[in-house]
Each structure stands twice: as structure tokens, then as C-alpha cells.
Amino acid sequence: MILKNSLLNFDVVIVGFGPVGQFTANLLNQYNLKIAVIEKSKGICLKPKANVLDDEIMRNLSRFRNFAEFKKKTSVPEYIEFTFPNKKIIQSNPVKKSLNGFPLISMFHQPDLENNLSENIKNSKNINIFYEEELIDFKQKNNQISITTSSSDKKNNRILKSRFLLACDGVDSFVRTRLNIDQMDLQYNKDWLIIDIKLNKGITLDKVARQICDPNRPTVFMHAPEGRHRFEFQLLAGEDSIEMKSNNSVYKFLSPWLDSSQYTIERSEVYKFRGIKANQWKIDNIFLLGDAAHQIPPYAGQGINSGIRDSINICWKLSMVINHSLNPIMLESYQIEREIHVEETIKSSIALGKLIDSLAIAYKKNMPIADAVAPEARDQAYGGRKANPSEDINPGIYLNSPGHKFTGRLIPNCRLKNNKSVDINLDSEINGQIAIIGEGNIDDYLDHDTVSLFKKLNTKFINILDYSFKNTDLREMIKAGFILVRPDFHIYGVTDSEHNLQELAEQFFVSLCLNK
Ligand SMILES: Cc1cc2nc3c(=O)[nH]c(=O)nc-3n(C[C@H](O)[C@H](O)[C@H](O)COP(=O)(O)OP(=O)(O)OC[C@H]3O[C@@H](n4cnc5c(N)ncnc54)[C@H](O)[C@@H]3O)c2cc1C
Fold first, then answer.
1. Best mutation site among 271, 287, 338, 352 for ligand 1, i.e. most ligand atoms within 8 A of its Cβ?
2. Residue 92: beta bridge partners?
3. Cβ of 195 less than 6 Å from ligand 1
């Protein structure tokens, strides 16, 4: 039977309501797009899985209404550490706030994030969520996608029409498989036992994220919010997953730190650390995001963060195409920008895994660390966190001009005071739109048609002379010239001796495939 509410027309259909689908629905909701979500499960997933959010992702989550409630449930470790099993510290870095305005890492409980994101949009008039419906078919024709779902009892079907389909359907993505998209395996495949526990009242452990470089078994010791703690143990060849995740085995694994009477087990799961990416992230109007597009070994905690970064990248572009009728060719920049980043992130996560193994071997052989680990290996292991991993070229919607050291970087998230002494957040001023930030009035630098076009695109003009602020990173950028910021807070380019604001703007319109 065909269900009622069938044949509805949407701007975007999202398949999969995991954290990436949820984040995407929230962001597209802010752009007032008409969205449907298809999720085969009954509701959100209540199992803890990913547990680290980075500063850029926290910044982007703070764009949503209920963020403060979620933030209360996160927690920040004091240090990120690498140690030997004898507790000797190899490296220890305090977890500081970055220019994104948040600590480099925040620990979270995945069900808290999923609850928060789904609650935020529960009553939105823009969004229809179809739980317990599985995507079983889709066809693209004449710029429209026809999407068929099946109810969980397989008795009913629904057909939805949409201009775009976003596949946020996880590792075993039906969409990716159906489109015959191959994946590139970066040849990393290790099983880890992940144990999440809730500590009894009064029991505490060090508030750190610690990698223990143990030659017998690399181990992760991670503080978690609300009295929780996570341990991860690399499984060795021949170890049986089912046996390893049993309660008795968990008690044994945790015995160096805790007695079994001091905690309850929330999850004990064997998870495969893999490095894989899809070779195509877009076919016509269908896009892959999150685990559907890539799997990243979680050494640097970048799996879920990379998925949300995909979403941040595509959502503003979809809004430009749908709300401002921009040429859809600009959407090609999605894979161009994200693939290079994800590939770098996978490589540095793998390098971090190998670094831990090398340090463990150095410990076993009693070798100096410098002999065991080449400096390049360390560099690569820490390299994947940059906003844009490319030092020289910035493929995609960026101004490529030699000497533009700010291109591709993120504009700092900082507090401003307006001339009435009211505290304002720069991100709220940008508010998910294009922004031009600089000293002076843009009418003095841009011709009338250019200003009109920017206004049509809802551009925010921020004359920084109207504000006071202390942020030294922002001050350094402003000193360079006018900054053109994309809605995802990435800097498109800055004026310099080669590009005045008019030229910068014209290049930007070309990058957006837009004629004045
Ligand atoms: C068992 C497990 C353990 C994990 N442990 C860790 C960890 O310890 N550390 C870490 O960093 N990361 C971990 N991860 C990975 C992390 O959870 C993911 O990176 C993150 O959830 C990615 O989010 P996503 O939205 O892309 O995909 P998912 O969270 O997988 O969500 C995909 C959603 O799509 C739905 N779906 C799939 N196919 C269809 C269809 N045909 N129709 C309708 N709906 C569909 C699914 O039901 C699901 O809700 C783990 C993942 C799993 C599965």
C-alpha cells in the first residue's frame, strides 16, 4: 500500500538520522529549506559510540537553539597525554581553547548529542521525519529524485520527490552501494575493544585523554562526562571478539585501575578501526556524507567530526543553490574541498596509530624515542586537524593568490562590543551567511551592482570600526585588509596589494559560478 503523505515535494531528503543526518537537518532548517528525513530505526541510537568533539564542531553546534543544554553534558579533559605503561609521560599538552572559541577537544556521550539535535527540530515546520521507514529505491530524472521507502513491517511504501538526496546512511550506505561507488581502502584494519563505564559515586579517575603506548597492548584511557570513563584496548591476533567483550573479560581489563564493584558497564563493543573513503561523493544531485563517505580510525577522534564537517560544507552551498538560485555547478566544490581534507585526516589518524605502535616498540626495546620515531611521522600524526590541510593550494571556493596566508583558515569566533557597549558574538553577526569584515564602509570600496548582488545573497557587512574587541588573531587578519568569509566561517580571501575589495568580490562571484 502507498502511504498517505506520499508524493510530497522536498528541497532535500536526508536518508539516515544518525548524528550527521541530525546535524544536517538542523543546519538546513536554519536555511528554511523543506526537508524530509528517512530513518529505518524507531528513534535515535541510545548506544554510546563516538565520544570526542573538536573545537570547530562545538562552534558549529553552538549555532543551534538548545546548545547550552548539550554543552552542560560535555566535559573537557585537562591534558592530552602519551605515556608508557610505567606511567612515564612522553608528551602532555593542556587542552586549551582555540580560535574557534572552544577547547580543542570536548568529551560527550553520543546519545546526549543525538537527543539534543533531534529535540531541536522536533517541532520545526520545515522538517518531516519518517522513522521506521527504510530507503529501498531512488531514481534521478530531470533534476528530480523519486525516493521510495518501505515501512518496517514491509507492508507500506511511501514515495517522496526531492531535488537533492543526502546519504547520511552510515558505513554500509545503501545509496553508495546502489550507485556502485567504489571505495579506496587506505589499508588500516584493527579491532579495538571499546569499554564505556559509569563510575560509582565517589570514584574518580584522572581527567585526561591518555594514549598508553604499551607494547603488550596499546590502550586508551579517556575521561568522559557525567561520571563516565572510556577505555579502549587494541585486540591482538587470534583474540575472539565475543570472549573479549564479555563482562568477565572487562573486569580483567580494567583491574589495573578499578575493582569491578566500583563501576557499571554501559557498553563493551569491538569496533573496527579502518581507513576508507568513497571515490565519488556526488553523483548528479545525490551526495554522500559522514560514515557513508569515509571511515576514519578514531585515534585523533575525527570520525564523527569529519562527518559533521561534510555537512557544514554542503549545507550553505545547497542553500545558495536553492534559496538564491545559484548555478548548481558550484556544488562540485563539495567533493573537491572535503576529499582532500578527509584523505589527510585518515592519513594522520593512521600515522597517529603507527606512532603509538612505534613508541610502544621503543619502550620494549629500551630505545631513545628519537631513534624510534622519525620527526616527519610525528608531524603527520598531528597534521590532520588544520581547517585546511593544504598549505599552498586551496582547491574549491577559495581565492588562490600567493601570499594569502589567511585563505582557507577559519575566522576567529570572538566577542565584540558594539557602540552601545552590548556584547555580541561574531558568529551570531555572521549568522550562517556570507560576510565581509573590515575597517570601513563597503559602499566606499564596491560598485553599486556588486553591493546589490551581495545584498541579494543576504551578505553581512561588518564594519569592525563600529565595534571594540580584544582578539589578537582577528586584529592581525583585519590589519591585512577586508576579509571575505564564507557562511561556514572559512575565509575565502583577504584584500591585498594584488586584490582590492572589488577584485576580491568579482573573483568570489566567479568561484560561485555567478554572473553579475
Ligand atoms: C557500533 C559502532 C561503534 C562505534 N564506536 C565508535 C567509537 O568508539 N569512537 C568513534 O569515534 N566512533 C565510533 N563509531 C563511529 C561513529 O559513531 C560514527 O562516525 C558516527 O555515528 C557517524 O555518523 P553517521 O551519521 O555518518 O552514521 P551512523 O551513525 O551510522 O548513522 C546512519 C543512520 O542511517 C540509518 N540508515 C542506514 N541505512 C538506511 C536506509 N536504507 N534507510 C533509512 N535509514 C538508514 C541508520 O539506521 C543510522 O541511524 C562507532 C560506530 C558504530 C556503528
1. 271
2. 81
3. no
The alpha helices in 203-274, defined as continuous H runs, are: 241-244, 247-254
Characterize the bridge pairing of strands 133-141 and 144-151.
antiparallel
| pLDDT of 384 | 46
Q: Would you state the pLDDT for residue 375? A: 63
CA of 291 to the centre of ligand 1 (A): 7
Domain CATH number, residue 440: 3.40.30
Q: How far is the CA of 18 from the centre of ligand 1 (A)?
A: 6
Residues 288 and 428 grouped into a single domain: no
| CA atoms within 13 A of residue 489's CA, in its CB half-sphere | 22
Instruction: Say yes or no: 327 and 450 in one domain.
Output: no
Give a yes or no: residue 267 inside a domain: no
C-alpha dist (Å) from residue 470 to 215, 334, 412 = 47, 34, 11
The alpha carbon of 6 is separated from its chain's Cα centroid by a whole number of angstroms, namely 32
For position 24, which CATH number holds?
3.50.50.60
The list of the chain residues with pLDDT below 50 reads: 383-384, 387
What Rg, from alpha-carbon coordinates, does the chain have? 24
> Is residue 31, in this structure, part of any structural domain at all?
yes
Report CA-CA distances (Å) from 497 to 104, 263, 405, 474, 480: 34, 62, 14, 20, 10
The per-residue pLDDT of the chain, averaged, comes to 92
DSSP 236: P
Closest CA to 24 of 15, 40, 224: 15
Query: Are residues 39 and 180 both part of a single domain?
Result: yes
- Kindly report, residue by residue over 26-55, the tens digit of the pLDDT: 999 999 999 999 999 998 888 889 999 999
The per-residue pLDDT for range 285-336, each reduced to its tens digit, is 999 999 999 999 888 788 899 999 999 999 999 999 999 999 999 999 999 9
Residue whose Cα lies nearest atom 10 of ligand 1: it is 50
CB 344 within 8 A of CB 383: yes
The finding on whether 174 has its CB within 6 A of some atom of ligand 1 is yes
Tell me how many domains the chain contains. 2
Cβ(430) – ligand 1 distance below 6 Å: no
Residue 36 lies in domain: 8-69+109-184+280-331
Contacts for 489 with CB less than 8 Å, ≥ 6 apart: 59, 410, 411, 413, 427, 430
Task: State which ligand 1 atom lies nearest to the alpha carbon of 110.
Answer: 17
How close is the Cα of 163 to the center of ligand 1, in Å?
Answer: 25
For ligand 1, the distance from its centroid to the CA atom of residue 170, given in whole angstroms, is 5
* Residue 219 placed within a domain: no
pLDDT at residue number 388? 52
